Amino acid sequence: MGQGHGHGQALSASGRHVGRLAMAFAVTAAFMVLELTVAVTTSSLALLSDGAHMVTDVIGVGLALAAILAARRSRQKAGRTFGLYRAEVLAALANAVLLFGVAAYVLYEAIHRISDPTEVPGLTVSLVAVAGLLANVVAFLLLRAGAKESLNLRGAYLEVLADLVGSVGVLVSGLVTLLFGWRYADLIIGVAIGLFVLPRTWTLARRSLRILFQHAPEGVDVDALTTALCALRGVGEVHDVHVWTLTSGMEVASAHLTVLPGADQGEVLAAARKLLAREYQIDHATLQVETGEAAGGCHELQW
């Protein structure tokens, strides 16, 4: 059975940048609190939308940091044979639900304000937007090096990069309000940021639900995988095939391989593991090699 070497290497690469990751988390978290506080006190929809997006950054960077720290501790404890990796998926789903809620609230408020837009202090919004840009640039620079080595850090890096767009939008709304006094600027930019976040939020929710429902990873054709295993020398039949994702970057598989008479079971197992790792990037596979007589009970299962 494979030991998940690819994921271990990714976490090792992340570990070299844990200090930078912690600093990026502190910067984004501090600004998130500032932006949401000002959004509430000024009734700015643009700041509220961008603040909700900043929550995604904080959770993304926080999950990356948590994954590194968890990897430094024992991965398996009694009753937790897969550790706490699914906590990342649950947090991502909760994050998606939160963003959907904020987007719905922003759209609701925009509809109610359209006839009489709330007057928003342009100078305050502009200053917070500049602070947001600086915070995102700092986090961007801190994560850039690690993003080249680790998928774990790359996800957090891309979240921060995307939020730069939101900060620019807030700055535009603040400057337009400050210079021209156009009260619709905050409303329009707030809705635009909310709509910009929605597709990514939907993708996040869909991927989280696929993992929680233990669907096959996107891009993995289970029928083709089964056919490839059947084509290995010495394999007569393959059944009870399951492929799922434990958490982002950790694909897992299990299967029963019925070998032909006279086949070397060790060679069959080694070839199957090599195939899954090379062709499907599945490093953790539980493969049961059995003779035709031993496989009879497997077909009695109805799931």
TrEMBL record:
The chain crosses the membrane at residues 21-40, 52-71, 83-108, 120-143, 155-181, 187-205. The keyword RNA-binding does not apply. Keywords: Ion transport, Membrane, Transmembrane, Transmembrane helix, Transport. GO terms for cellular component: plasma membrane. SUPFAM superfamilies: Cation efflux protein cytoplasmic domain-like (SSF160240), Cation efflux protein transmembrane domain-like (SSF161111). Residues 23-212 form the Cation efflux protein transmembrane domain. Pfam families: Cation_efflux, ZT_dimer. The keyword Transmembrane helix applies. One of its GO terms (molecular function) is zinc ion transmembrane transporter activity. It is a multi-pass membrane protein. It comes from the Bacteria. Coiled coil: none annotated. InterPro entries: Cation_efflux, Cation_efflux_CTD, Cation_efflux_CTD_sf, Cation_efflux_TM, Cation_efflux_TMD_sf, CDF/SLC30A. Belongs to the cation diffusion facilitator (CDF) transporter (TC 2.A.4) family. SLC30A subfamily. PANTHER family: CATION EFFLUX PROTEIN/ ZINC TRANSPORTER, RE54080P-RELATED. This is Cation transporter. It comes from Actinophytocola xinjiangensis.
